[in-house]
Amino acid sequence: MKKNLVRAVIALGLVGLAAPSAGCATVRPEQRSILADPVMQFESESPEERQLEHVLENREGSFGGGSVKGGGCGCN
Amino acid sequence: MRPRLSRSVRSRLAGLGGLAAAAVSLLAAPAAAQVVELDLNNASFHEPSTTSQMTVHNPGATLTVLPWDWLTLGVHYEADVVSGASEPVKAGPLSSPDVISQASVTDLRHLVSGSFTLSRKNTSITGSYSYAKEEDYKSQAFAVIAGTEFLQRNTRLELSYARGFDKVCNVAYPPNRDPTVRTPLDSSKGCFTSDAKRQQLDIDIDTFGAAWTQSWTPVFTTQAMLSFGLLHGFLGNPYRGVVIGASGQVAQEHHPENRARFAGTLKAKYYLRGLDMSVGGSFRGYRDTWDILSQTYEIEAERYMLPWLRLLVKGRFYNQTGALFWSDDYTGGEPEYGPRGQYWSGDRELSPLKSYLVGGRVLASWKGTREQRLAGMLLDFSAGASLDVIQTQLEDFTLAGTAPDDTTAFVLGLSVHGGF
Hints:
The complex is a heterodimer of chains A (about 80) and B (about 425).
Chain A: H1 2-21, H2 47-57
Chain B: H1 7-28, E1 35-46, E2 55-68, E3 71-86, E4 89-90, E5 103-119, E6 123-134, E7 137-150, E8 155-171, E9 198-217, E10 220-233, E11 241-243, E12 250-252, E13 258-272, E14 277-288, E15 293-306, E16 309-320, E17 353-367, E18 380-394, E19 408-419
Parallel strand pairs in B: 4-11
Antiparallel strand pairs in B: 1-2, 1-19, 2-3, 3-5, 5-6, 6-7, 7-8, 8-9, 9-10, 10-13, 11-12, 13-14, 14-15, 15-16, 16-17, 17-18, 18-19
């Protein structure tokens, strides 16, 4: 228990250190052409990804950890 | 003679007049956006096993309208068309194989949802509602997502909350009936009607989420997500029976009524200029109060093969431990087979397992302009096809001692998008 607490504190500390450093790494608007390209987008909400997630939710025990959607119980 | 209006009535009329004027001016405002997008897609899932032959078709359609820059409206419909077979009774290695039988399964699920997004310069808020219904299950969900961008739009933070109100059909047994003598639901006949042999049980779902997306360099971006969820209600499968006695006694699957889950995901994407290709990776860790601990590792690469054609390849590895109360056979004694506390399950998704996925997608897309539309009407158009193969390795799940063979699945996806 104590070990887990220490790990959680270290993880939070790392995030806390990383967050301010984000300000030092700004990308100027004219440098954003590659970042704006579809191949650099995180596609978790695309129709294909949602449908694949729907399949995996019904085959794995850790379903739905990322979002809540209406859906069946996978009963059948 | 002019009728005299009281001060409060005048004040109300003035207010209504102001609202009407605002509404008229809003409707008459120049439409800066006025874009309509239509997405049609279908995913077909098939397990080519000798026993279950489970096939699911999941067609969907989404219409998105942007009447103004600050407003996006969306409506979505999808269906699940299920056919195949499953084993209604779960037995372990200590039971006779005769216990295992096949029951054909057909089901049809409809889901409709609507959403709106209000956007300002660097902030947005999205609200959505969805409703799904099948013969034995209903669900409603509300969700709200608020996001903001800052540091020259290099940082985006999002907070979300969703609430689900689901209902599942079950046998109308008295609440005080001991779980060991509850029988499984034999069919969906009479569900959500006044049939005295059926009842509906609630499932409440709350999910809180936070996401941080960061652009670090012109070619490197990351996303970190945290999610915390609570489920409460009937969390088992009403159709599934589990052999819980050495004499072959079968009882309806019995799961705890509460489940809290926590997931953290870290994703990264990097653009390789020399290869004109993006590469990405992600790690997801998950833990819940049923003691399922899982890790998911994903990698992907995507590049333009032609200016209008993208190819994506990906791989995924998933590993999970079993639930605290999971046992492949509840009739024996500790340690290998036997009960694990007061609950029992025949759900293979709660057993320890590994899963491997390889997949790919090709996507062709073209862009027009307002002056020069594609085929005279489209601002943009894309069409894609994907194939994913999933292999599941069940480490401690058998059907009366025999490993099931429905562990390979194929998912074929097709999609079309048009912007008008």
